[in-house]
Design brief:
single chain, Rossmann fold, 8 strands, 16% strand
Length: 218
């Protein structure tokens, strides 16, 4: 069976990493990429943390569903509440950007170093961890690390410097806990991080594709 997977993006920087992971983890699956790159801009703007983005994500999901996708993966980690609102009405598998990766991180039972190039992703990740732990569960220590300038440089086409900055930040926290790259766009830096630290970091695209495959194939 050929699966059609809707990939909903708030930045073009997330497109290549999840498509690469989908080709590797679900060979033959058809990717349907839907992008609204104004979402990330509006989220980072003054007051953006208080904006209700659910209607916009619902519209994007409805479009994917109308095209008969089998599942949807969201790829921007700063919109957890909006995605939750859409998922409550879903009739097919929908994965938040980091839920599969968070599940893997929680299973490690150790402090988590959360590396982000988009600062609003860090508080969103804290929410994701609390949801994964559930009421009464023990929250792991989260060490939030913002890597400034890296996302801007990646957007300008300087992927090499982006990767180097992420790897340098990871190296400063070597041995502090499980390394986690909390944005889809950061997955490209995984090899540089591993070279700098000797540790393979968790990445959202690989974890998300693995969980989606299991959800669809049983």
């Amino acid at each position: 069976m050929t699966y059609r997977i809707g990939l909903i993006h708030a930045t073009p920087l997330a497109v290549a990493p999840i498509n690469d992971a989908l080709r590797a983890g679900m060979p033959g699956a058809l990717a349907m990429n839907v992008l609204d790159d104004s979402l990330a801009f509006d989220r980072a703007a003054p007051g953006g943390m208080q904006v209700d983005f659910a209607p916009r994500f619902r519209a994007l999901a409805d479009y994917c569903v109308a095209q008969r996708v089998d599942g949807i993966i969201y790829t921007c980690s700063a919109f957890g509440e909006a995605i939750d609102a859409v998922r409550r009405e879903a009739s097919l598998p929908m994965l938040k950007p980091n839920e599969a990766m968070v599940e893997e991180a929680v299973a490690a039972d150790m402090p988590i170093v959360v590396l982000a190039t988009f600062a609003p992703s860090i508080p969103s990740m804290e929410v994701d961890f609390r949801e994964a732990i559930g009421p009464g569960g023990r929250m792991p220590e989260l060490i939030g690390v913002h890597v400034p300038d890296a996302q801007r440089l990646l957007g300008e086409g300087d992927g090499a410097t982006h990767d180097r900055l992420v790897a340098e930040a990871a190296a400063r926290y070597k041995g502090r806990g499980r390394l986690l790259l909390c944005q889809f766009s950061m997955a490209r830096a995984a090899a540089a991080v591993e070279a700098a630290t000797g540790e393979k970091p968790l990445t959202s695209p690989e974890s998300a594709v693995t969980k989606m495959r299991r959800a669809l194939q049983g």
